[in-house]
Amino acid sequence: MLLHLPLSPFRRAAAEAVAAALGVDAVGLAVSTPPDPALGDFAVGCFSASRTLRAAPAALASRVAATFSPGPLLESAAAAGPYVNFRARRAALYADLFARTLTPGGTLVPAAPGAGQTVCIDYSSPNIAKPLSYHHIRSTVIGHALANLHRALGFRVVGINHLGDWGTTFGMILAAFARWGVPEPLTIGGMAERYVAFRKAAETDTSCGDDGRAWFKRLEDGDETARALWRRMREISLTEFDEVYARLGVVFDEVRGESAYEADMPVVLADLERKGLTSISDGALVVDLADCNMPPCLLRKADGATLYATRDLAAAVYRQEQYGFTRSLYVTDSGQALHFAQLKVVLERAGHEWAKRITHVPFGLVRLGGKKTGARTGNVVLLLDVLGEAEAQIDATVARTNPDLTPERRREVARDVGVGAIIFANLQSQREKDVDFELEKVLSFDGDAGPYLQYAHARARSVLRRSGVTDVAALASSADAARLARDEEWQLALKLDAIGDEAARAAESCEPHIVAHYLLELCAAYSRWYALGSQDATLRVLCADDATRAARLALDAAFGATLAGGLAMLGMRAPEEM
RNA sequence: GCGCCCGUAGCUCAGCUGGAUAGAGCAUCGGACUUCGAAUCCGCAGGUCGGGCGUUCGAAUCGCCCCGGGCGCACCA
Known about the structure:
By secondary structure, this protein is an alpha/beta fold.
């Protein structure tokens, strides 16, 4: 893993202070938070330095503290065992926060890390002719969050929806159409029905397999009947998919199916053959990977038809040639780990040094009632149904808690919050954990959940609206940080300051849950501060003292803007009211 | 059989580039709204970090071996 300096200027100053005092490299010094705020704002452990300098960590920490001289960002350093605990200059940190968040286009997430880099992210990538089901949401939402995250950090992002629009599956559906006719008007539901029926028939009727393969061959060979039907299926599917994507607020930079690589595949195969990497095994063209302790990678079936791996190979080359990526991510379920491992090895053997920049970003599967989901078994929940249910429940809640909203506005809010809750639920924990879908659980909106974050945002914005302040940028310069004397205010400020480093960590490890978890903590810090006002009116943002009110409003606005940016990184909306 | 992933409080999960007393939410119990939004906040209680051995000054975190669950492993994607 790459190590770099913290993005927060204050955290960076802490790392550099230790590095300067001890004569070690600041890169790699982890800046953490002391377990008790009374100890300090930032902590740097002297463990790694102790190994290189062959001295006791505690002695090194004392040396750092003794030689520390206050600067514009940090005011003190104290040794506590092996740690050096730093205190930031509060006025400086507040001023920095306000300057970076309250100006138009301001953000605490710097665009430097990704400068000059391009990342391709393959996400969602459903098969056409099957409805988008709940399990599709994982790739869609994780990939979209990773795209937003990288974009926020300054990367050029190419979000790719690599549609599964090619393969024997379509041969089977075409064969089913030939046997039983095309259900009109044709919908995804109709296609899927034929597919399931065909699979079922194939269990007893052995001619089905050959029939399906033959139809796919016809499709590949350009047979016009097959092509026309296939084009129709593709168009109808895309139209239905777009409805769901619009609902989720998910966008792509490139929608390019497997079929787009039809012409490239012979070229890729010829290249591999020329390089002597392929062999024929049982009539199929394969790359033997036994020396890597992997099963062979199948590139062409005995009947001449291409496979998944062939198309992904061609797509990988296309992406490198088209975009020159510095990183290429594939967000798919963990069951495909072997496929991507094979893909990388084959590309490497073909002499593509960029193959090592390809990363599979796996996630655990979604179970339904304890069983694996799948169109083949019919064990699915439609994504639209889940979204609709979430929105209906939120709509009912809003009708109760905020009866002044117009029905139209309420529906908007229900959409933002309902969809947000589903998105957040899918980003909250580590990708690789399997999840068992339970509607009641996904729709429980108390505590650590999407609505908690959006509620905090609505509150922060509501306070700002009531204040009558229209020029937040002016708050940045007029706010007197000395008026922010509460510990709760300071803890909130420290949390805000950390967002850049959290976002960078999330992007680097491809773990959006790092940001999700961070935002929960950020909102908890805000809610704790906000709640002081319900006991004591002088502690409210909108208190009687003008100068104090201005300072608190600046903090409130900084929070609102940062949270909105954080939610946007996860692909969630930040409603003004709810 | 081989390979990969997961196993932390009753439940769902953070914490895992080794480090300061293992943290949240839900559920239970007890508090806090006549005034900035209670979809909130505060508190009580709850843990042999699946088990064992090892490395280390120090292991939930690293290594090895078990146990439990899941997923892959030739013409599906």
